[in-house]
C-alpha cells in the first residue's frame, strides 16, 4: 500500500471538543456543525483562495454501521456531480499507512447555513419555490444515478445567502433498517414517508413526501408531523391527513396491517384547514403563479399518504409553483448522466478490518487520481444562480 503523505504536510488544531489534523493549506478552522458521523469545520483554502467545509470522519470503521455509511457516502460523493448536491473538493488522512489509519477528512464546498436555520425565517414565495425547485433538481439527479434517498431532512440540506441549495448526504442504504446503530445520536424521522415508516416497498416519489414535509414546515414555521417515536410518527400523519384507504392497507405486511387497521379512524382535515391563507407570505408581484393557492395545491399533492396517488418528482418540477424556475440544464444536469450506483455495496458484509482496508483504498485512490490529474484540483463545484428571477 502506498503511503499517503508525509506528516510535515499536516498540523493539528483543537476545534471545540475535537482535534483536527489537516493539510497546512487549510487554515482558520472554525466549527460549524456536527452530525452522526462527526464534526464539520469551516476553513480557508490558502491554495485556491476558497472557503471550504471540512468534515472529520473519526475512525469511520469503528463499527460496521459507521463503516458502511462512510464508505457509501464517499463512493457516492465521487460519483455524483450536480450543482444541487454537495461536491467533494479533496479527501485526506493524516495517517501514513493502513496500519496507522484512523481518520478521514472530506473537504467540501462551504455553504452558509443548513435548512433548519432557514425554515425559521419568513420566506417569500420566490425563495420558497426556488428552494423547492433546487431540492427537486438535486433529487432528480440522485434518482438518475439510481439513488433513492428516503431520508431527506433540513439538517442535511445546506444553503447559501444567495438562496442556492445543496443536498449533503445520500440517505438510507437499501439495507438500512436491518442494522442497529449504537449511537447517542437521535435519528430524525419527521420527514420519513409512510412507506418508509411502515416498511413497504418504495419508488422515487418516496422523496417527494420529505420535500412536502419541508415545504409544509416552511409555511407553518413548525414541524408538520412531529412524532415522538416511530409509531407516533404514523399517528401524527393520520391525525392530520386521515386514515388511508383499504387499497393502501392491502399493500401492508400482515403484522403492520393489523396495527394500522386497529388505530382509531381519522377523517383528516382539508389543506385549507391544515395550511390556511394566513400562514403564507404575500403574493408575488413578479410571478402571478407564486401565491398561497398554488403553494397549497402543490403541498396537497406531495403530502399524500398513498405513494400511488402522490405526485412524482417530474410532475412536481412541472407544477406552476415550481416551474417558474425550470431550466433544462439544471433539471437534466449538464454533466453526463452519472454511472449508476452499484447497490451491491449496500448488501456487502465485511469485518471492521476489511472495511478499514476498503475505506483506506478509496482514500488512496482519490488522492492518486488528484495527483495524476484525473480529478480537478480546484474541485467540481458549479457556480450557483441567485434568487433573482431573470
Ligand atoms: P453532517 O455531518 O453532514 O450531517 O453535517 C452536519 C452539519 O454540519 C449540517 O447540518 C450543517 O449545518 C453543517 N455542514 C455540513 N457540511 C456543510 C457544508 N458543506 N457547508 C456548510 N455547512 C455544512
Key attributes of the depicted protein:
390 residues, alpha+beta, 10 strands, globular, binds adenosine monophosphate, magnesium, Kinase-like_dom_sf, MAPK_JNK, Stress-activated protein kinase JNK
Report on this model:
The protein is of the alpha+beta class. The protein is 34% helix and 14% strand. The chain is built from 14 helices and ten strands. It has a five-stranded antiparallel β-sheet. Strands 8-9-10 form a three-stranded antiparallel β-sheet. Strands 1-2 form a two-stranded antiparallel ribbon. Helix 1 (64-79) packs parallel to helix 14, helix 3 (125-144) packs antiparallel against helix 5 and helix 5 runs antiparallel to helix 10. The radius of gyration is 22 Å and the shape is globular. The chain starts with 9 loop residues before the first strand and ends in a 19-residue tail after the last helix. The model is unreliable at 1-5, 177-181 and 378-390 (pLDDT under 50). The protein binds adenosine monophosphate. One of its GO terms (biological process) is rhythmic process.
